[in-house]
Write a structure and sequence with these properties.
Blueprint (H helix, E strand, L loop, with lengths): L2 E5 L4 E5 L27 H19 L6 H8 L3 H29 L1 H18 L6 H11 L5 H12 L2 H35 L4 H8 L1 H17 L8 H7 L7 H9 L2 H11 L2 H18 L4 H13 L4 H16 L1 H22 L5 H25 L8 H23 L7 H16 L6 E2 L3 E2 L11 H6 L4 H5 L4 H9 L14
Antiparallel strand pairs: 1-2, 3-4
Helix pairs in contact: 1-6, 1-7, 1-9, 3-4, 3-5, 3-6, 3-18, 4-5, 4-6, 4-9, 6-7, 6-18, 7-8, 7-14, 7-15, 7-17, 11-18, 12-18, 13-14, 13-17, 13-18, 14-17, 15-16, 15-17, 16-17, 16-19
């Protein structure tokens, strides 16, 4: 029997299969319409804090090696090619994993999918302590890197918990704080290494023991997600499937629907040259400053950490900026903001490689870090609106694009001695500018694109999202979640946009 349930403070009335109350105001899908950073309200804000912390731990584990490379390369006799291959391996492993993670989230929910991956990749972090050859080093970095696919579950989870007007902020802050792991590990690992050495261990033993710390936190974060997380505002996937509240979707149709949406391919390309650039910098920046400016290991680590630590505010700022632009200019505002910020990030990256002064290199790197990370947040201000039915697939494609960009960039510019580090950084910036241009091709018939307004055919949000379901599926009411999403996404028209429907 259907009953009416109130959405907390908002008093929003929505038809559900059981009465539910929430600590935060919600929309028709029971997604929170507000974002309260310091709240632990279940399920919305609890999911937020669990997701970013799990992603943070996986990021620390994946990039635990680069800040200790000067010691590791001496112990394992690593060549420049070995180090380049290991860097590529660390980000290539999750290309396929991110695509699979998106589909897994659509079918099984973000809680179970992310926890399973985090637990299955933790052993690679522990095994790093026992490697004895360059091949072993490359392999553990490859398998540990699979854990970066938790980024997809983080974005999927936030898009499932937060409504359109705040989803960019939720996605940006969750991913940004998770990405902090790339900067935090530049500080954490040298400190842990020094503490272990001070206890009497040799340097070749100390770096091995140090890897147990990120491995332990990665494991604990997975259990926290399993024990305290919830897939959707209304419950977990398995329980909702069992009760009949949520029908199991056809995996083939979910994948096909996502893959045929050209917008997902553009977000994947563009994300490859904001997040992909960020991953590349995480892999090379400590060694770059150590070798080019002849710094101490810990000094180079601190400088490198400042790049990743900008995620504390830069990527969240990108998500918040996306939401602010949408309130005024709708989806077109999101697209313009994304293109401008990412292009400026590419320009700054190109300049970074041209500067020979230590002081100015640090200054430009810091400004560059803000723009490239904000662009990542702006990307996922757009992604949740590309598809409702195949949200996980689109998120996975985009996330995988970030890793593909990092792999290609490192293969072309940072593998071996073809290019110097500084030349590689400059060329990477130029490539970023070029791969940002296709954003102008993204067009939503109900909202428009960067240079064109909405379709003159009066296409509505409902027309767009329900087109993902055929008539037979609609007769079975499988489209109802998409219909509710269409109702709430009307906000993407923006106050300053003249729309033929208004």
């Amino acid at each position: 029997m259907e009953v009416e349930g109130k959405g907390g403070e908002s008093g929003t009335t929505t038809t559900t299969t059981a009465p539910r109350r929430f600590a935060l105001p919600v929309d028709a899908e029971n997604k929170s319409t507000t974002f309260r950073l310091f709240s632990l309200a279940k399920p919305h804000m609890r999911a937020f804090h669990l997701s970013w912390f799990q992603f943070f731990c996986c990021f620390v584990s994946t990039f635990a090696a680069p800040p200790l490379l000067p010691v590791i390369r001496e112990n394992l006799n690593l060549t420049a090619t070995d180090i380049g291959n290991a860097g590529i391996a660390s980000v290539s492993g999750s290309v396929f994993a991110r695509i699979v993670m998106g589909t897994a989230c659509d079918l099984f929910g973000p809680r179970l999918a992310s926890a399973a991956l985090t637990l299955s990749t933790a052993p690679a972090v522990y095994f790093t302590s026992g490697i004895k050859s360059p091949i072993g080093f490359i392999m553990v970095r490859f398998f540990a890197g699979f854990s970066l696919a938790t980024f997809v579950s983080t974005q999927f989870w936030m898009s499932s918990m937060f409504s359109g007007p705040v989803v960019g902020s939720a996605n940006g802050i969750a991913a940004g704080w998770g990405n902090l792991g790339g900067g935090a590990t530049q500080l954490i690992m040298p400190i842990v290494f020094s503490l272990i050495r001070n206890m009497g261990a040799t340097k070749f033993t100390a770096w091995r023991i140090a890897f147990f710390i990120p491995g332990l936190f990665q494991t604990l974060s997975a259990f926290a997600v399993l024990l305290f997380g919830q897939d959707l505002p209304d419950g977990d996937y398995w329980a909702m499937h069992k009760s009949g509240e949520k029908e199991k979707d056809d995996v083939g149709k979910v994948i096909h629907n996502g893959v045929r949406n050209y917008r997902g391919w553009i977000t994947a390309l563009a994300y490859g040259y904001c997040f992909g650039v960020e991953l590349t910098i995480d892999n090379i920046i400590a060694e770059y400053f150590f070798d080019r400016f002849h710094l101490k290991l810990q000094t180079a680590g601190i400088i490198a950490a400042s790049f990743g630590l900008a995620n504390f505010f830069a990527r969240p700022g990108g998500g918040i900026f996306s939401d602010l632009m949408a309130r005024r200019f709708g989806m077109r505002g999101r697209l313009w903001a994304w293109w401008i910020v990412q292009t400026l990030g590419g320009v700054l990256c190109a300049f970074l490689g041209m500067i020979s002064s230590l002081t100015w290199s640090i200054v430009v790197m810091l400004i560059f870090s803000v723009f490239v990370q904000a662009a990542c947040g702006l990307t996922f201000g757009v992604v949740p609106f590309i598809s409702r039915r195949s949200l996980g697939v689109i998120s996975g494609m985009t996330g995988a694009g970030g890793n593909v960009g990092a792999v290609l960039t490192q293969l072309i510019f940072f593998k071996g001695s073809t290019y110097s580090r500084e030349t590689g950084i400059t060329l990477m910036g130029i490539m970023s500018i070029a791969c940002t241009l296709p954003i102008c091709l993204i067009y939503f018939p109900q909202w428009g694109g960067m240079f064109c307004g909405p379709s003159s055919k009066n296409v509505t949000e409902e027309d767009y999202y329900l087109s993902e379901w055929n008539s037979e599926e609609r007769e079975k009411n499988l489209h109802l979640a998409s219909q509710k999403f269409a109702e709430t996404s009307v906000s993407e028209r923006g106050r300053a946009t003249t729309h033929p429907q208004t």
